[in-house]
Amino acid sequence: NAGVTQTPKFRILKIGQSMTLQCAQDMNHNYMYWYRQDPGMGLKLIYYSVGAGITDKGEVPNGYNVSRSTTEDFPLRLELAAPSQTSVYFCASSYSITGDNNEQFFGPGTRLTVL
Amino acid sequence: AQKITQTQPGMFVQEKEAVTLDCTYDTSDPSYGLFWYKQPSSGEMIFLIYQGSYDQQNATEGRYSLNFQKARKSANLVISASQLGDSAMYFCAMRDLYTGGFKTIFGAGTRLFVKA
Question: Which residues contact B57 (CB under 8 A, 6 or more apart)?
Fold first, then answer.
């Protein structure tokens, strides 16, 4: 049981390049999330998904896109990378959003630098 | 609007002593959940404890307990018998369960240093 996995762990991009951050979970969770964490700050929600084929914007979606073709995978796409997207990106999943078992399980994070 | 405030940027505690990390929140939702996460220097986010707004008792998980005072809108984390491995960043978070749906907001965090 791997939980939530993310690849890559580190990446350096040049301004204007694109990349996809991969996220997968093996806990059969319907709910998945992408956050970014800027230095010295808490997490901010970029996008979330409530199930395969259903995604929606969070607090800071500009410059990102997501897709959810399967329950397990929730990739985050950066188009035209900018220095402001330098951050640590966390993927998370949860079994529910209310009541018991609604805590989020996080992946190890991807540290992205845009130069 | 939702808001989470952690007023202690950093705290020191002696090993084996108890420590309280403060968290206050603001919401107009009648139903909400409060979370605490630990982030060690390795960077991963580890779920510690959850408190629902309608839970009658304060949540406890091993050495962690949540001192929930609804009228004061506070949800402080108490760590008993601190260990060196407790040195980390701690984040308080909240989700409005009635209107907020999927959005969990996080505080800025408190860095805890445990001294030997």
Answer: none
Rg of chain A over all Cα atoms, to the nearest angstrom: 13
Sign of CA dihedral A94, B98, B96, A62: positive
pLDDT digits (tens, 9 = 90+) for B61-110: 999 999 999 999 999 999 999 999 999 999 999 988 776 667 889 999 99
Q: Can you tell me the mean pLDDT for B12-38? A: 95
Residues in chain A with CB shorter than 8 Å from the CB of B109 are: 40-42
Structure tokens at A3: 């939980």
- Dist CA A43 CA B60 (whole Å): 24
Compare all CA atoms of chain A with the CA of B48 and give the residue at the minimum distance.
A103
Assign A83 to helix, strand or coil.
helix
For residue B99, give the DSSP letter. T
Backbone φ, ψ for residue A41 (5° rounding): -120, 170
* DSSP conformation letters of A14-33: -TT--EEEEEEESS--SEEE
What is the distance in angstroms between the Cα of A89 and the nearest Cα belonging to chain B?
11
